[in-house]
Specification:
CBS-domain; two-stranded antiparallel ribbon; two-stranded antiparallel sheet; 7 helices
């Protein structure tokens, strides 16, 4: 089965200058796990996840310092700056993850599952060969495939039981 078979085609998106409060409202109103950020031309520029939104309210991890010859060298400055940027962000582009992990519509679901697990991403924007976003897939889409496969298995087992039952 291909990603195109399970992706959501009508994708809700926000612009880079969308206020964070509006982003939170869109998340809540549509029960989303992630929200693509697109340019005014519709080009994917990043992704905001529930985790990104929650990270805004986490305590920043202060950088560690390495004492060397009476001086202190800060370690992890890049991570600290990134943490501060997200915490103090006021618009979508301040808190989005960029570049967003993406997948092609003709990719196999197994490839999607591997990407989601290995890169710890959810949801995943689906982009065509030209880089245009054509859909989005989330854990829920993948779980739906499992649910449908299980229902088909149950139905086939029930049909098999009916065929084997002796006629009275």
């Amino acid at each position: 089965m291909k990603v195109a078979d399970i992706m959501t085609k009508d994708v809700i998106t926000v612009l880079p200058d969308t206020p964070v409060g509006d982003v939170a409202r869109v998340f809540r109103q549509h029960s989303l796990s992630g929200l693509p950020v697109v340019s005014t031309e519709g080009e994917l520029v990043g992704l905001i996840t529930e985790r990104d939104m929650i990270a805004r309210h986490a305590r920043p991890h202060l950088p560690a310092y390495l004492p060397v010859l009476g001086a202190y060298i800060p370690l992890g400055r890049k991570e600290y700056r990134e943490s501060l940027r997200r915490i103090t962000g006021v618009v979508a582009q301040d808190i989005m993850t960029t570049p967003a992990e993406t997948i092609a519509p003709d990719a196999e679901i197994e490839d999607l599952a591997s990407l989601m697990i290995e890169k710890d991403v959810n949801p995943v924007p689906v982009v065509d060969e030209s880089g245009r976003m054509v859909g989005i897939v989330s854990h829920t889409n993948v779980l739906q495939v499992f649910e449908e496969a299980d229902l088909k298995l149950e139905e086939s087992l029930e049909e098999g039981d009916e065929k084997e039952a002796p006629a009275k």
